[in-house]
Design the sequence.
């Protein structure tokens, strides 16, 4: 289960970073995008550590740390990134972004998991 969580988180990060390319054009978000990318690197470090662990207390502790880091990352995005993007980007462009993000996710999703 831990490996699956880590794989899905890695895929989500890649899709989100596609979104960040658009968000980088919004002046209010320049510093926030850099922070989000640093947070992604920290999450990647945690997932690498988790993948190297067997079941047990160490794995549970790392999974808890990952959960807390993801929750904090999401809170920050919901407070600062998403509202600024919604304010600055047209509805038409948001639909295009959504389509692009779905296409990226589809490319990254293993064939056997696409319909789950």
Sequence:
């Amino acid at each position: 289960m831990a490996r699956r969580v880590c794989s899905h988180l890695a895929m989500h990060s890649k899709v989100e970073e596609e979104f960040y390319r658009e968000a980088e054009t919004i002046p209010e978000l320049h510093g926030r995008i850099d922070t989000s990318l640093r947070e992604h690197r920290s999450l990647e470090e945690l997932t690498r550590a988790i993948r190297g662990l067997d079941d047990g207390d160490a794995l549970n502790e790392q999974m808890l740390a990952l959960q807390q880091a993801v929750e904090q990352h999401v809170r920050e995005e919901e407070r600062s990134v998403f509202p600024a993007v919604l304010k600055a980007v047209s509805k038409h462009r948001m639909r295009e972004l959504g389509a692009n993000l779905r296409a990226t996710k589809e490319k990254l999703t293993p064939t056997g998991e696409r319909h789950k």
